[in-house]
Amino acid sequence: MIDIVFYVFAIFTIGSALAVVSLRNTAKALFLFFFVLFGMAGLFIFALADFVAITQIMVYVGGVLILMIFAFMLSNKELLASIQDNSSRLFTLPNWQSLIVVLGFFLLLSFAITDWLATTPNWISANQKTQAILQPTDNNIEQLGFRFMTKYLLPFEVISIFLLAALIGAAHLSRKEVED
Length: 180
Known about the structure:
By secondary structure, the protein is mostly helical. The protein has 8 helices and no strands. Helix 2 packs antiparallel against helix 3 and helix 3 runs parallel beside helix 8.
């Protein structure tokens, strides 16, 4: 049963992501991006990364995506009016270069998966010998808090600067221009 739910989340996320990158209507793509972020949060839960899943929902869905939608709706009235237009095709391929890039990523991912399955990485073997394997009942939020405030303090602060830049950008886009 768990495998079925995982595959439903994976198909849902991949399908929504494909729709986001293929739609020409920016408003529809932003709303579909909402589903991509929720699907990713579900996949993080399956990876036993509950803290990352909650952070995904709170920061990206609750903050960044809402700011993107807010900035879009206040900045470009022509694109907002095009929401009423229904295009005849749901998926469009902008150009043939994107197909080459997707095939390249697919080949790279296929190679990585087959290499991963052929040999067990050293760090997994070492953790299996020392019994340092993460269990679903483990509480990893306390360890994440300690790591965020010690070893990963600089990347944590860089991410907060990026979020601040997103807030400033949304505020700038929502300002009304003064005409001379």
